[in-house]
Amino acid sequence: MSNTPPVPIQVLGSRDLPAWLAERDVSLAFTTYQTGKIFLIGRKPDGSLAAFERTFNRAMGMTATAQTLWLATAYQLWRFENILADGQLDQGFDRLYVPRVGYTTGDIDIHDVSVADTGRVVFSATRFSCLATMSERDGFRPLWRPAFVSKMAPEDRCHLNGLALVAGQPRYVTACARSDVVAGWRARRHDGGCVIDVIDGQVLCEGLSMPHSPRWHEDRLWLLDSGHGYLGRLDIDNRTFEPLAFCPGYARGLAFAGNHAVVGVSRPRHEGTFRGLPLDDELRKRGGEAKCGLLIVDLASGNVTHWLWLEGVDELYDVAVLPGVTRPTLLGFKSDEIRYTVTAEGHPGVIWRGVAKE
Q1: 5 confidence band (pLDDT: 50, 70, 90)
Q2: How high is the pLDDT of residue 6?
Q3: CB 270 within 8 A of CB 231
Q4: Cα separation of 22 and 266, whole Å?
């Protein structure tokens, strides 16, 4: 076993990123599954960037509002709730998310997570090539799978990873290939990616490279053509992908704040699945190198207006925008803080802390 200490994680934001967060009254969250972290990015009272992280094993898909956050981990799905009252500050934070409910799903490789308008959580169970939700008795309940996947099996046949809601209901998914054999998508990672309509099962677009993170925003379907390195939108009528902005890294994780997109980028692994993607040639052609962090993209121009880079982390999965939040924090399981932070229904904003006496 190596005794080399872990590389410290550094967060560096562009000069005007805190001002952009303040103008839109938002904070950001993102997950790093390789290092098993969730990061919360907000603003300090002096206007500088505030970064906070907690450890969760293989932190992956997430979705969030100002009060609730859902997070998929290696074999569980967690619901966090903010315990602070409106306008309340606790140690300088205006949101304190606490894990309240955890569903043990088993290792089904949850990627994207969404909450339908009925309140039901729907996620992509990528290992089983399907959309699913939680079950009170079992690990999960399958809801839908592509017509070309002939059976339920833990074989990751098509790498169904992304989910977009429209009018509060699951509507579009991304998959890395139309494959019905175990890990068949891996042989087609360069150009087998597709977008599928959940309603009628039609494949709307093909020829993408490992697409991720479909999102419905302002009556358009946006997604990441990750293997090519582009944020773009799908012309549903013509069934074509229209690139908007090149992303210097493996793009994965997409959220929106008004007329801006927040895109996660990673340094691609240069072995196995991530080796030799079209993104590599595009970076060389542009004289760039892959970054790890967040890009803020203007949807009108396609320009990257702000950025946040990470050192000590190579891969991100998902991103979320927290509306109306200035400086969030979150409890994890690595310290006794969660044990001795207590609230009670009927006592809003009251937090009891301290070690119980024998």
Answers
A1: low
A2: 61
A3: no
A4: 26
Instruction: Report the largest interatomic distance among the alpha carbons of the chain, rounded to a whole angstrom.
Output: 70
How far apart (Å, rounded) are the C-alpha atoms in residues 138 and 135? Answer: 5
Average confidence (pLDDT) over 23-50: 96
13-52 per-residue burial string, b: 16 or more CB within 10 A, e: under 16: bbeebbebbeeeebbbbbbbbbbbbbbbbbbeeeeebbbb
Query: What is 137-148 written as a DSSP string?
Result: SSS-EEEE--TT
- Map out the domains of the chain as residue ranges: 10-342
CATH architecture of 10-342: 6 Propeller (2.120)
Identity of the residue numbered 229: G
- Pair of tokens at residue 114: 């969404």
pLDDT digits (tens, 9 = 90+) for 163-196: 999 999 999 999 999 999 999 999 999 999 999 9
Stated pTM of the model: 0.94
Q: Are strands 293-298 and 304-311 parallel, antiparallel or unpaired?
A: antiparallel
